[in-house]
Design a protein that fits this description.
The structure is a homodimer. By secondary structure, chain A is mostly helical. Chain A has two domains: 63 residues, Winged helix-like DNA-binding domain superfamily/Winged helix DNA-binding domain (Arc Repressor Mutant, subunit A, Orthogonal Bundle), CATH 1.10.10; 136 residues, GntR ligand-binding domain-like (Four Helix Bundle (Hemerythrin (Met), subunit A), Up-down Bundle). The first copy, chain A, is 69% helix and 4% strand. Chain A is built from nine helices and three strands, in the order αβααββαααααα. In chain A, a hairpin with a 3-residue loop joins strand 2 and strand 3. The first copy, chain A, is elongated, with a radius of gyration of 20 Å. At the A-B interface, helix 3, helix 4 and helix 7 of A face helix 3, helix 4 and helix 7 of B. The structure holds a DNA duplex.
Chain lengths: 228, 228
DNA sequence: CTTTTGTATTCTGTATGCAGCATTTTTTGT
DNA sequence: ACAAAAAATGCTGCATACAGAATACAAAAG
């Protein structure tokens, strides 16, 4: 594992009060990103001394961040042996997708009931932009907007618990989705599903939206199952 | 706030290596219980020095446990002001119950497919014992077995993600359920629903089990909404 | 009497130090 | 030469110490 960017702390001598957000949050987000983006592969031990030095933080706040991530399910705590990056089996992923599917179906139904027209219009904007990124074959931005759309739909449901859990599952699966690079035809199929989604949402077609969201995630499993 | 039992650490002078489980887990569970059972009411600040002294632990592991619970959603971290016990609004509870309902419906369907006869028989045992506790008007044990049954059904689904999230929501709602003491007639209705449940499960009636589980939780909302 | 400002105290946030457990390496006996 | 035991090393777990921020209090001005 190569160079890892230290957190934004006194990069230079000037000690201006740069840090606006609490260090804890910064650390959590940073570690989460490192795990999602593969800087820390599954099974890797989180070496407190070493990792702390790389990030320019002492062990105490680092340990606190690790405990936080442990509760999120991204790392596993082994007594007297520290923490390791959690490894997900294909079944684990399938399980998560099953739950996520159910939650998105729920979100879709609720969204059709509670969303305002303006909110739906915003999702439409995200959708159109995603289509642009698709046409430009910009996979990274496509993925990002894809996630944003699903997150946005979850938010439309106006259910905080649903939003939280949905976000948690998305985070856990993000690492997987980074890997699953489907071929052009499957990608096109995913796009068609998204077209159906936005159509159903704008029509406030509860059952239609719920159905396509479920189907979309079911197909997502097909797309990643090979590259397990 | 009155006497709080210190963790099992050198209560006397003898320093025998009593502690078998990691302190972190012990602390997390202890704090969780304190929150659920109302020793720490919503809005209470978790005073690190004071709380640590009460429990006989230094601030470091205590802070780690608090961060863990923050990720679980039981406490809220306020920058530079520590942690406070999270306060749930009626809408929050309704939101949680909505999600929980969807998850239990899913669990019911999956359980009918994947559970072994032995596992179902075990749930039946729990059920019968719960009925006994009901007839004995033993509310505490009734509640405990009630939760156990719902947890058991979630486990039958053999979906680790579902089990985890279900457990998390149950934990968050446990504090609420402690309050919601319904009257005799509503209690009897809940019992009838449970009878339906076990019948549907033994018949492996997916739709039936799913339906009654959903209805049961919907009614649960009715039972607690008054004592918000 | 109210408001504002300066000071003191208290608590959080971070760093460091020490003890115990795990693991690895070395040594010793067969 | 191989196995088992013992020592040594490295890391985690916990406690303590220090610095900075927030709040509470007090004094002074309007």
């Amino acid at each position: 594992m190569d160079e890892i960017s230290p957190l934004q702390r006194r990069a230079d001598g000037s000690a201006g009060p740069i840090r606006r957000t609490a260090l804890h949050d910064t650390l959590v987000n940073h570690l989460r990103d490192m795990i999602i983006e593969g800087d820390l592969e599954p099974g890797t031990r989180l070496h407190e001394g070493q990792l702390g030095e790389q990030l320019g933080v002492s062990r105490t706040p680092l340990r606190e961040a690790i405990k936080y991530l442990a509760s999120e399910g991204l790392v596993e705590l082994v007594p007297s042996r520290g923490a390791i990056v959690k490894r997900f089996s294909p079944k684990d992923i399938h399980d998560m997708l099953t739950v996520l599917r159910t939650l998105e179906e729920l979100a879709g139904r609720l969204a059709c009931e509670t969303a305002t027209d303006a909110e739906i219009a915003h999702v439409r904007e995200l959708h159109d932009e995603m289509i642009d990124r698709y046409k430009a074959a910009d996979r990274l931005q496509y993925y990002k907007l894809n996630q944003d759309i699903h997150t946005a739909i979850a938010r439309l449901a106006q259910n905080s618990s649903l939003i939280d859990i949905h976000a948690m599952l998305q985070t856990r699966l993000k690492r997987i989705r980074f890997i699953g690079h489907e071929g052009p035809e499957k990608w096109a199929a995913a796009i068609r599903e998204h077209e159906e989604m936005i159509t159903a949402l704008e029509a406030r077609d509860k059952d239609g939206l719920s159905e396509v969201l479920g189907r979309h995630l079911f197909n997502a499993w097909d797309r990643v199952r090979d590259s397990l």
